[in-house]
Amino acid sequence: MNDDLTDVGEDAEPNAAEVDLSSPGARLRAERLRQGFDEEDIADKLHITRHYLRAIEEDAYDKLPGVVFARGYVRNYCLLLEMQTEPLMTLFEGLVEIAKKEKEAESVPRSRLTRADRNQRWLSLSLFVSVVLFVILWFING
């Protein structure tokens, strides 16, 4: 697994440092590898699945049961590896905020009409048709 960080050659160190500065998951993964733990060790100690551990290390927090759980998993992972939690949690919160804004931007409503608006349209149309029929019948019988 350590090959992922050093596979690039001379440029491996600066690239790894750049990723680590912006990614809580990459920092946790690098520290886990530095300390010699494998995924199963950490997953067992955190009482989570390896799937969740990979999601944390890949910053794929949408694969976790929710932001509250993700926050707890990341904090506990930091504590387990004896890392400072505040810088990493600040990065985590930033990523969560960005994801939240992206999700809000994507969730533009298809129709701006609410159910009450649609019902009001039908009520207005029904009232109009009734009035027109009443006027027609009044002229016919009048």
- The CATH superfamily of the largest domain bears the name lambda repressor-like DNA-binding domains
CATH class placement of the largest domain: Mainly Alpha
Q: What is the gyration radius calculated from CA atoms?
A: 29 Å
* Major beta sheet summary: none
Q: What distance separates the N and C termini?
A: 92 Å
Molecular shape: rod-shaped
Mean pLDDT: 82
**Sheet/helix structural class:** mainly alpha
Would you identify the regions where 5 or more consecutive residues have pLDDT less than 50?
1-20
| Share in helix | over 70%
Proportion of strand residues: under 5%
Total DSSP helices: 8
Structural notes for this entry:
The chain is mainly alpha-helical and 142 residues long. The protein folds into two domains: 3-108, lambda repressor-like DNA-binding domains (434 Repressor (Amino-terminal Domain)); 112-142. Helices cover 75% and strands 0% of the residues. The chain has helices spanning 3-6, 12-22, 24-35, 39-46, 50-57, 67-80, 85-106, 115-141. The longest helix is centred in the last third of the chain and has 27 residues, at 115-141. Mean pLDDT is 82; it is low at 1-20.
Present the secondary structure layout:
Elements: H1 3-6, H2 12-22, H3 24-35, H4 39-46, H5 50-57, H6 67-80, H7 85-106, H8 115-141
Helix pairs in contact: 2-3, 4-5, 6-7
Please summarize what this structure is.
The protein has 142 residues and is mainly α. It has 8 helices and no strands.
